[in-house]
Amino acid sequence: MKGHVRLAVWCVVVALVALPIVGVLNGWFAASRWPVTKLTMQASFKHVDAQQIRAAILPHLGKGFFALDLGEVQKAVAALPWVASAEASKRWPDTLLLRVYERKPFARWNEKQLISRQGVVFSVPEAASYTALPDLRGPDDQMSDVVGFYADALKAFAGTGLKIAGVTLTDRGSWTLATADGAQIVLGDRALAGARLRRFIDAYPQVVAGHTDHFIYADLRYTNGFAVRWPEPAAAAKTAART
């Protein structure tokens, strides 16, 4: 009796294992019989649109519901410039489910690229047009240093009324800050930049005392001080224009 039970169990197991093979041979799982006809997306789009996603996944839908490779679908969607990642799943009998996570830009990088809030550099055709984002520049392999120095500069100038809008690190290791008013603050050698910036911040209230406009240039590379240039008075500018 026990032998008969064992045999019955094995028959069920064999039948279950063999079913997909039989199904393929008989065309039960063919794309024409079980096509993917619906796409459901969960996403909050600002830069990516549904047409781009449809175009990315369309080449992968021809195999039908059962043969659809979810990994390949995820890769195709994640390859879109503004997509950070994608999760794909299937819902019986004909639906592809997509959850799409879009990149959130934090700053511009070397004018032609953007940096996401996760610290990933990515390229989009319109990168240069995002002028409201901080303008960060430097060697590609030192991007994290530039971002870190920008964050330090924001903290240093908090409460001064100056807004730091950009940071540049040259190939020779020289730092320059740019303000939202268009002023340049040259700090020079990266090894001395921190101390020079603190000295400038400490003296800043005295520097701006008596001035109603913003300085346009500050050179902090002096041993015991710094040089600040102010815009020409309107009257002087008019006189120079007449001569």
Automatic annotation (TrEMBL):
Main function: Essential cell division protein. May link together the upstream cell division proteins, which are predominantly cytoplasmic, with the downstream cell division proteins, which are predominantly periplasmic. May control correct divisome assembly.
HAMAP family per the UniProt record, alphabetical: FtsQ_subfam
Membrane topology: Single-pass type II membrane protein
InterPro entries xrefs: Cell_div_FtsQ/DivIB_C, FtsQ, FtsQ_C_sf, POTRA, POTRA_FtsQ_type
Protein name: Cell division protein FtsQ
Family per record: Belongs to the FtsQ/DivIB family. FtsQ subfamily.
PROSITE patterns from the UniProt entry: POTRA
Record PANTHER family: CELL DIVISION PROTEIN FTSQ
Assembly: Part of a complex composed of FtsB, FtsL and FtsQ.
A biological-process GO annotation: cell septum assembly
Claim: Cell division is one of the keywords in the record: yes
